[in-house]
Amino acid sequence: MKKFGTFGGVFTPTLLTILGVIMYLRLGWVVGNAGLLGAWMIIIISFLITLCTALSMSAITTNIRIGAGGAYAIVSQALGLEVGGSLGIPRYVSQGLAVTMYIFGFREGWMGIFPDHNAFLVDIIVFGVLFTIAYISANLAIKTQFIIMGIIFLSLISIIVAAYSGSMEIPASDALSWGSFKGSIENKFSGSSFWIVFAVFFPAATGIMAGANMSGELKSPKRSIPNGTLWAIGVSFVIYMLLALWISRSATEDELLNNYYVMVDKAYFGPLIIAGILGATFSSALASIVGSSRILFAMGEHKVLPFSKFLAGQSSNGQPRNAMMITGILIFLTLLLRNLNAVAPLVTLFFLITYAMINIVVIIEQKLGLISYRPVFKINKWVPWFGLISSIFAMFIINPTVSLISLMIVLMVYWYLSRQNLETPFEDVRSGIFVSFAEWAAKHTWAMKNMQQRAWKANLMVPVRDVDGLKGTFEFLRNIARPKGSIKLLGIEPSSETSTLAEELEAISESFRQKEVFSTASVIHTSEFAKGINYGNQALQGAFFRPNIVFLNLQNHDDYENELRPVMKESIRLEIGILLYLSHPTALLGQRNTINVWVSDRRTKWDLGWDIGNLDLSILVAYKLKMNWGARIRLITVVADPNEEENAKAFLNLLINLARLPQTLTEVHVGAFKDVILNAPAADLNIFGMDEDLKFEFVKEMSKKTKSSCLFVRDSGHESILA
User: pLDDT value at position 327?
Assistant: First the structure.
């Protein structure tokens, strides 16, 4: 299946949807009512609302592997299929209605040129052409939109030529004014208001999802959706602002209020404006029919709707033909209604509900503070809040009654889907929300206990028999766990009435809590160090908040074979991550500027799926330390076969991209590991993977050869740096 880039897949459909019929037929009326200053303010407010949502959408799309369905996919992957479906179903229907309204708009423009043509026949022919283009392939739809973009560009050239030819006869001092809000022909100029005019104009700015709807057919959604959408918003904003200036100085107030085709009259070559109107409505309809079928296809893939297997059917070239046929039937039936005035506001309001939901997703992700939320495109915390509040505000400004009806429809669909026991095929952040509510939410997260990769936090179990050794690793442990992780201090000692270990551990736990890391302490009385740790880990398997990493601080008095190896073996059996730390006797943790993560030779197995081997915990810990130290990460791999060097480089670069680890260094060395390690790049901490038979000699050798502290890591199998 052909994949699209930023320009064709996102920028073009988004720009053409924004530069729609309102630009040609209502912008003059907006300026006539609000004046140039009022019109500019309306344009700025409208685009500011959509810009905030576009920024939120850009952040979330650079944090997930977005599938087909655009906004539906974004919300589903964050809040689950029930919430995504409650938004996706009404949004799909509203996009179908939007296609019909664009067809009606095209027909009105056509009838202005050929008044004797049969209106219904025009509608059917336009629908047939649209459906044929969309049904053949999205590639043909994109190519068609390039032609339409050329027509709209020529219409704007006609306006520019008119401006240079002297159409701007009204003095700037007269044009630069606040409007008198006299109303429209329909209400016999009985008056309007700023917000009534805003409600008429705002739908022009709601086309920002046109490119995102193509998410499943983009080469790089993470790059294309933010870049294409934001560029389309910027270009269209400039066009609207300049057009408002031009028309305010080219036509009188009476002309602007009484003649919706004033742009046709004032342009240098009027027929090009008519062509632009036809092209704008046609392209908007085409983008909507292609986008809506992708939403239906995505819901079919996730089994949200009845007959999902049929809806998820594809042609040999990857086109969602079955979803397209259902969409075509829906549009044809709405064409028979002939009048959509009663439901037309639903289209805009469902767009605004979608905007609000996307902003809510970002707010939740930001508030939870999970390590899985690390978007490449970062935004300020106030952006989604402004987007959410302004979207809700715009909804109730446009139509309070229909806004409430729209919200009720969304809630009803959610209620229905929540009773269908949908199986979510991907991880979402609901588990993080439930954990935030502690015991109240425990029953919810318990049902999702096998799907916690996105809600992963470093919950350390730290065995202690030497408090001095613990004090030496205090800051290191804190930087692994901070800010959302936890530390469980487990004292191991023989029973003694005079022991102060419990009090000392509690004092250190309190120090952790004061430094933003939740910590608890307890003591097991046993003379066998390994058994004490293993019994503690075994007992905690039934706990709700249980440690997922055991931290072993290798010291000189430790018996590696009889005390530490049994703990590592049992931790592997219990699926608990392991961190074995060996502090360099003189270098310690140095300046904490650089962390080396050593990636083992994958020997021709360089494909990057969800399972990347014993590497997830190493990179997650490195990322935590990077954030808390302000350090940089360097990924290093050593390959024995020179022919594998390029594959290794590609693997590391892809891993950095999918794991959202910008500014990460990479190095690929060819040769024997024992030779490369002697000349390893300097770092304050070197992180190595741990196999089941990690030799003590290897541990000591690595610290000696790297001249640094070392961390040996074993995954539990429940972490994912790609989540």
Answer: 87
Q: Where are the alpha helices (DSSP H) in 581-707?
A: 616-629, 645-658, 673-676, 696-706
Q: How far apart (Å, rounded) are the C-alpha atoms in residues 599 and 718? A: 19
Cβ distance 57 to 229 under 8 Å? yes
Q: Is the pLDDT of residue 685 over 60?
A: yes
For domain 583-723, is the CATH number 3.40.50.620? yes
Q: With a cut of 80, say whether residue 455 has pLDDT above it.
A: no
Helix (H, G, I), strand (E, B) or coil at 310: helix
Amino acid, res. 371: I
What residues contact residue 567 under an 8 Å CB cut-off, 6+ apart?
Answer: 463, 530, 533, 534, 550, 552
Collapsing DSSP states into helix, strand and coil, what is residue 461?
strand
Q: Which residues pair with 524 in a beta bridge?
A: 492
* Fold match flag (6-300+309-418 vs 583-723): no
Which carries the bigger pLDDT value, residue 177 or residue 703?
Answer: 703
DSSP 194-213: HHHHHHHHGGGG--TTTTGG
- The one-character DSSP state at 462 is E
DSSP string, 402-442: HHHHHHHHHHHHHHHHHTTT---SS--THHHHHHHTHHHHH
For residue 241, the tally of other CB atoms under 10 A from its CB is 16
Cα Rg of the chain, angstroms: 31
Instruction: Please provide the size of the chain in residues.
Output: 723
pLDDT digits 0-9 by tens, 367-379: 776 777 788 888 8
Angle formed by the axes of helices 321-335 and 81-113, nearest 10°: 50
Contact 428, 454 (CB under 8 A): yes
**Does residue 487 contact residue 505 with C-beta atoms inside 8 Å?**
no
Class of the domain covering 6-300+309-418: mainly alpha
Domain boundaries, the chain: 6-300+309-418, 456-578, 583-723
pTM of the model: 0.71
Count of other CB atoms within 10 angstroms of residue 450: 7
Q: Domain 456-578 adopts which CATH fold? A: Rossmann fold (3.40.50)
Whole-number Å distance between alpha carbons of 55 and 229: 9
Paired tokens of 676: 């490369």
Please tell me the predicted confidence (pLDDT) of residue 440.
45
Q: Are 82 and 414 in contact (CB under 8 A)?
A: yes
- Both tokens of 338, joined, read 């002939």
For 204-250, the DSSP string reads GG--TTTTGGGGGGBS-HHHHHHHHHHHHHHHHHHHHHHHHHHHHHH
Tell me: the pLDDT tens digits for 563-608?
Answer: 999 999 999 999 899 999 999 888 888 889 999 999 988 887 787 7
Structure tokens at 309: 């297997």
Please say whether the beta carbons of 679 and 656 come within 8 A.
no
- Residues 339-372 as b/e (b if ≥16 CB within 10 A, e otherwise) read ebeebbbbbbbbbbbbbbbbbbbbbbbbebebbb
Least confident window among 141-155, 295-309, 340-354, 431-445: 431-445
CB 635 within 8 A of CB 656: yes
Distance between CA atoms of residues 361 and 571, nearest Å: 36
The residues, any chain, with a CB within 8 Å of residue 38's CB and separated by 6 or more, are 178, 179, 181, 194, 197
Cis peptide before 681 (omega within 30 of 0): no
Q: Look at residues 559, 365, 694, 321 and name the one whose alpha carbon lies nearest to residue 312.
A: 321
Long-range contacts, 410-416 (Cβ 8 Å, 24+): 410/86, 410/87, 410/90, 410/353, 411/86, 413/85, 413/86, 413/89, 413/90, 414/82, 414/83, 414/85, 414/86
The structure tokens listed for 575 are 């699926």
Residues 722 and 612: beta-carbon distance below 8 Å? yes
